[in-house]
Amino acid sequence: MPTPVLEVTDLVKEFGSVRSVDGLSLIIEKGDILGLLGANGAGKTTAINMILGIISPTSGTIQVFGRDLAHERIAILRRMNFSSTYTHLPGNLRVWQNLNVFGRIYRVPHLKRRIDEVLELLGIAQLKNRVTGDLSAGESTKLNLCKALLNKPELLLLDEPTASLDPDAADTVRRLTLRIREEDGTSILYTSHNMRDVEEVCDRVVFMHEGKALRTGTTREILDHFNEQSLESLFIRVARGGVIESSAPSSES
Amino acid sequence: MTFSTVHALVLRNLYLYTRTPVRGIELIFWPLVDLLVWGYLTIFLQSHTGADFPHQITFLIGAVILWDIMFRAQQGVALYFLEDVWSRNLLNVFSAPVSNADYLASTYVIGFLRSAVTSLLLSVLAIGLYAFNIFQLDWMLLPFVFNLLLFGWALGMISTALIVRWGPAAETLAWAVPFFLQPFAAVYYPVDALPTAVQWVAHAIPCSHIFEGMRSGLRDGVVPWENLAWATGLNLLYLAAAGLLFTRVMKTSREKGLLTKFVSQ
Ligand SMILES: Nc1ncnc2c1ncn2[C@@H]1O[C@H](COP(=O)(O)OP(=O)(O)OP(=O)(O)O)[C@@H](O)[C@H]1O
Ligand SMILES: [Mg+2]
Questions:
Q1: How is the beta sheet containing A67-68 ordered, strand by strand?
Q2: Domain total for chain B?
Q3: Could you give the ipTM of this predicted complex?
Q4: pLDDT digits (tens, 9 = 90+) for B251-264
Q5: Residue A61: in which H helix or E strand, if any?
Q6: Closest ligand to A36 CA?
Q7: Contact A93/B16, CB-based, under 8 Å?
Q8: Atom of ligand 1 nearest to the CA of A208
Q9: Which domain holds residue B13?
């Protein structure tokens, strides 16, 4: 069996007395799209930040491309990228200037051409010379995605990529996510509060609650397990404390 | 350290200054105000003290210029980090393949460029307005100026480390840190002018040796090697300590999630 692109084992993060991530394990194979689902404060962003090396785990290991993140951070980050609705590219630079800066940091070959390509891909080629700070929330989300795709990452982390998008733009992003997986074999970790995103885009879902993975599997498997009709109703049930079943065997193990 | 990464990070800041030229005002405005105030004060004192006017007072103008070289270098380093905080770009940078060394190197380049702009401008104005030619100190000045840059970088790195550690509320440290030291830095007066009890503080700061050295060089026309040696030695110590502090703070920030707090606050 080939080495997984991402393998997280028993990941724990404590901030003082708060356990934000509590024994999370997950695996992403090449070309997999894995959804991280969970209520506010479930620990999704903290998990992503640990995979990016911005936060160090209290315990547990993170292997990316078969290498240990704690020891080979820079080499690993070169082959990854990330986008979140809550980070922005510098507002006082022009769109192309921002992409030029990050393209160089990620050592993207034929950068000029690649910048045009990603802008085209997100359908915002006409914004190339605009000042980044003047973009609408949705446009700037798309620009963040351009930055995230610049280096053709083998592992892409998307933290709520559709959070500020209108239904049309959200649909574009969902289709784009599937397309880059299709074309480049990109592996993707995807968090969202939009159940539609998760159902349409993700092959498998990790359902998180209070830092723990309640259940991992396809949407169907998870719904069957909890005997629910939709992810949304399951989500609400969990968020309101209706399911305390973290000890249930996961479909993977 | 990777050259292309440093280049990219420097480029990000150059775009900032060329895109929003108003940022450049800060490089020119405050130093100019200082130069005018201290320059005219010097002229005023000169005209009221007659022929026995102490030579050192002329050096006030020089001191203004040189202090600013240090201050701009320090700010170049500290503001660099804050720019990314203000534009919510921090996580993009720190989730990218950027090592501590890449990051620090690019802040140094920006610190150097800022100092170069300010010092060139002030030097030209000082010649024009007060016929004070800082270049009359000729090549002797260069190693001292270089030492000021080194100290500015070290202080900038320390400022950034403190801001990362204490969070957004400590932003003002970017401006304040050099001024904590100024009373002991012998910028406008010699170390002797300080009470004996605190003179050791002055001696522990590279700045005091730099300014003392330049005053004595100006007075006697010989290179004060001893001052130069002290300044350089202390600067190397400060740079090493600041580098260690920065690396430690970055490690702590990963443990405590400090960088992500800049995004949410
Ligand atoms: N740097 C930090 N210091 C202290 N506590 C933190 C820090 N970062 C996150 N937390 C806490 O960890 C928990 C998980 O937060 P996290 O941001 O990972 O949740 P999330 O699942 O991404 O939520 P959301 O859906 O709202 O984005 C929260 O209780 C939060 O308060
Ligand atoms: Mg989150």
A1: A18-28, A6-15, A59-64, A67-68
A2: 1
A3: 0.89
A4: 999 999 999 888 76
A5: strand A59-64
A6: 1
A7: yes
A8: 21
A9: 3-262
